[in-house]
Design brief:
The chain is of the alpha/beta class and 255 residues long. It has two domains: 200 residues, Alpha-Beta Complex (2-enoyl-CoA Hydratase, Chain A, domain 1); 48 residues. 53% of the residues lie in helices and 16% in strands. The strands form two sheets. A six-stranded mixed sheet has the order 1-2-3-4-6-9, with helices on both faces. Helix 1 links the parallel strand 2 and strand 3. The protein is globular, with a radius of gyration of 19 Å. The relative contact order is 0.12.
Length: 255
């Protein structure tokens, strides 16, 4: 049975749990499709203001499902590998582009696509037992889940090459030093607790303003100052018209 996505709600925070303990929460194409669908569903639910992404048990995820990869290779259909990759890419895009803030709570193994999935989140909280690895070249394949796009933006090109080409495992303390994670906790349960607390803090912000801020930040790397300023002006004009912004400025004025 493929890893499923379990959904739980805690007020404005929705937790999505990769649940496939017998496979170390590995990511089959069906898992990626389900993750995409759940992110979209959270965005459409106006009661949800933040998302926590985590794995069941002591591990985040072992990455891509080996049986799924081998089955795709064995298929006679030449388009099967592309369709397989599109599932991963749709999930990575949904996480990266979501207007909702997404906090990853990571522990144990975070290999390959799972490493990159966590990096696509807005915040990463990891416990000390976490082991990260860009394992792809050990398997004779290239990085997926958007890693070649996201990782250099987090650590720079040289560090990204070091992680991907050498494919060494790193611990959570090293990941913190590199800037791959935001917070280091002692235990997996503390990581989830801290990630949930952080998500609740984020959920108290304007849903609209958070989404537009994420969009401004993500677009800045590939644009010019002028294009960023133009998007900033359009975004600000939109949020200033919202009741949330008007009420916030009224409170500030009357303080």
């Amino acid at each position: 049975m493929d890893t499923a996505i379990e959904v739980t709600n805690d007020g404005p925070v929705r937790t999505l749990t990769l649940s496939g303990l017998h496979r170390l929460n590995s990511l089959a194409a069906s898992t990626a499709d389900s993750l995409h669908d759940e992110i979209v569903a959270a965005e459409r639910d106006h009661k949800v203001h933040a998302v926590v992404l985590t794995g069941a048990g002591e591990n985040f995820s072992a990455g891509g499902d080996a049986d799924g990869v081998l089955n795709v290779v064995a298929e006679a259909d030449d388009d099967a590998p592309i369709r397989f990759m599109r599932s991963y890419q749709r999930a990575a895009t949904a996480v990266w582009n979501s207007p909702l803030p997404i906090v990853a709570a990571v522990s144990g193994i975070a290999y390959g696509g799972a490493f990159n999935l966590a990096m696509a989140c807005d915040f990463v909280v990891a416990s000390r037992n976490t082991r990260f690895c860009q394992v792809f070249l050990r398997r004779g394949v290239v990085p997926d889940f958007g890693g070649a796009y996201v990782l250099p933006r987090l650590v720079g090109l040289r560090r990204a090459k070091e992680l991907m080409l050498l494919a060494d495992e790193i611990d959570a303390a090293t990941a913190l030093e590199m800037g791959l994670i935001n917070t280091l906790t002692d235990t997996p349960s503390e990581a989830l607790e801290h990630a949930t607390s952080l998500a609740h803090r984020l959920s108290a912000q304007s849903r609209m303003a958070v989404g537009m801020t994420k969009k401004l930040l993500h677009s800045s790397a590939g644009g010019t100052l002028q294009s960023s300023l133009e998007m900033e002006a359009l975004s600000q004009a939109s949020v200033l018209a919202s009741s949330e912004a008007q009420q916030a400025f009224e409170r500030f004025r009357d303080h």
